[in-house]
Amino acid sequence: MSLDTDTPIVEFEHLWVHSKRIPPINTSDQRRTVKTQIHSVSAIYDKWTTKFKKISTPDQRLPTHKKVLINDISGTLLAGQITVLTGASGSGKSLLLRVLAGLLPMSSGEICLRSHDASNSDIYKSIHNTPPTQWRTRIALLAQNPQLLEGRVLENLQMPYRLQAHQHLEFDIDWHIAQLVQLERSAEFLQQEASHLSGGERQLVNTLRLLQLNPQVLLLDEPTAALDIDTSTQLVNLLVNWLRSDAQRTILWVTHDTQDIMPLADRHWHMQAGVLTKMR
Ligand SMILES: Nc1ncnc2c1ncn2[C@@H]1O[C@H](COP(=O)(O)OP(=O)(O)OP(=O)(O)O)[C@@H](O)[C@H]1O
Predict the structure, then answer these.
(1) By Cβ atoms counted within 10 A, which residue in 4, 50, 117, 154 is the most buried?
(2) What is the DSSP-derived secondary structure letter of residue 241?
(3) In ligand 1, which atom is closest to the CA atom of 91?
(4) Distance in angstroms (rounded) separating the CA atoms of residues 113 and 100
């Protein structure tokens, strides 16, 4: 199916995420703690600790508050495009990816994913009306630190097919061998113990494990951050080829490494203190 490159694949609107309410400090508990400390010191310091007690027991209670982590942001990920997301540490980039992937609840807002109905017409499914397992098979998050299981690479790649969400899919070893050729590795790589792999090789396995499940949207959280230049280039090529091989796919790519990734970007977004700005 052909698709215009400006077709929206994911649309999100007015996303808000707040931290949980931080409970107030219970000042009577605090006073009790200080008193216990005071009774346990020797009499010679009693006068001094009484002064200390006055200073360290505040009269007023601290107010409760919720912190705004994602501040009313909206955006669209378009077909065939790479959208690069930059921003300082703690600005909310990873939080946004986890919300879009359905791994973290938002306080309010809407996320819709392009899909098809029985007559193959376009529809947009809301995250609120889609079972979480179904949502996560369409929108996949690739994190910086891959978690692999004990056992061989092959067993790690086959593992998702044991999950109910993917039981309708079949493991395709030929697809993996073709990908490994692109990654300049032989089929013997599949027989290696996962615990013996380098950080870069672990990330390649993690990526293949996700891509084989044919997601429509990839959310990348600094996937090349810990990799050497060669492995990083291989991983970038793997991801770009994945994007180009189906016009209905899209990538949102969080990175601090703007030099390498920015030339590939169709769009550039920037986060600052939970606020999203579209740079281009
Ligand atoms: N589950 C959570 N509950 C409350 N606060 C959180 C939660 N997860 C993250 N935060 C806070 O939200 C803010 C944004 O975190 P986030 O991980 O999205 O930053 P980031 O932009 O991805 O940073 P980095 O570039 O360092 O990865 C931080 O202040 C963090 O402490």
Answers:
(1) 154
(2) H
(3) 21
(4) 10
pLDDT above 70: residue 30: no
Tokens 């200080």 label which residue?
A: 34
CA-based angle 252:256:259, to the nearest 5? 95
Query: Does ligand 1 come within 6 angstroms of the Cβ of 69?
Result: yes
Q: Which atom of ligand 1 is nearest to the CA of 96?
A: 18
Q: Would you state the structure tokens that stand for residue 40, as one six-digit string?
A: 């346990």
Of the candidates 13, 23, 225, 248, which has an alpha carbon nearest to the alpha carbon of residue 115? 248
Q: What is the ipTM of this complex?
A: 0.94
Q: How far is the CA of 89 from the centre of ligand 1 (A)?
A: 8
For 125, 232, 257, 259, the CA distances from 263, given in Å and listed in that order, are 32, 15, 11, 7
For strands 122-126 and 139-142, give the pairing: unpaired
Alpha-carbon distances of 16 from 13, 72, 74, rounded to whole Å: 9, 5, 10
- CA–centroid distance, 68 to ligand 1, in Å, is 11
Express each pLDDT in 173-212 by its tens digit. 999 999 999 888 999 999 999 999 988 899 999 999 999 9
219-243: buried (b, 16+ CB within 10 Å) or exposed (e) per residue? bbbbbbebbeeebbebbbebbeebb
DSSP SS3 for 221 = strand
